[in-house]
Design a protein that fits this description.
This protein is mainly β and 286 residues long. The chain has strands spanning 8-11, 23-27, 32-36, 48-51, 55-66, 77-84, 87-88, 92-94, 107-114, 120-128, 135-142, 147-152, 162-165, 169-170, 172-180, 191-198, 201-202, 206-207, 221-228, 234-242, 249-256, 259-264, 276-279, 283-285. A hairpin with a 4-residue loop joins strand 2 and strand 3.
Amino acid sequence: KQWYQRRVAITAGGTDGWMPEDITVTYGPHGSKHTVENINRWLDDNASFKLCNVKSVVQYDIAIETSTKSWSGTDSSIFITLRGSDGTTAEHELDNRGINDFQKGHTSKFVINDKDVGSLSCIVLRIYGRDGFRAQTVTVVNQVRKTTSSTDVYEWLDDNGSLELCDLRQATEYSLALTTSTKGWAGTDSGIYVILKGSNGNTKEHKLDTISHNDFRKGNTDTYVFYDQSIGSLDCILFRINGKDGWLVDTITVEIGYYEYSTANRSNVWLDGYKTIKFCNLKVEY
């Protein structure tokens, strides 16, 4: 069932006037947001007025994985526009202040708020600058509709150009919580990668790295979220290390929808020397 806010009525309970500029109402089963902007009307002397130009606002979570190809990262400005069955958003700049976004091999995440465009049909990326950019995947989550759309990118974005990405597929969110052992030298500065193997297929390999954060410290728990195709029920978790600084994981938890899969490294098996390790004896909770 869809929830819509048609109007907002406001009454002043006194003579001390008030002039609102914007009003946002959050309600409904999905926390839908509805706004009235640029009001700029006085409310005083026990009066009231109704506001009918209400706009529905949706939170979109954006995840852009930069390619691992040489020179893929960029310092140019990247903008996004979403097109759907019910309209088009405004163009939004993707920029996390204080963070170096769009580094080679990293996933940059952003949040934008705009109108609900309905069923997403196309994602438009635009670059402002001549420092080219090569994305690998782009994922958009509509937090009200709870839909996730993803697409692969096969072209460079540069010279103030734009890309229209319309080959969208439904994606699944995967959340990993990895606790590093407290044993000596358990932490690592090597690159850690993961593949999830399931009853209906496997994810691609994902690098586990949080920008501006020292991952995989001894005794710490690191959490990662990525999007990929649906693999059904999880059978195995495969880790790969890129480096000789070994890593000893203690516990592993993977959340897929309502299901939680977990395991522990009871045999204290080290991952090092550019090798791989696989965990298949998983405990499942709903």
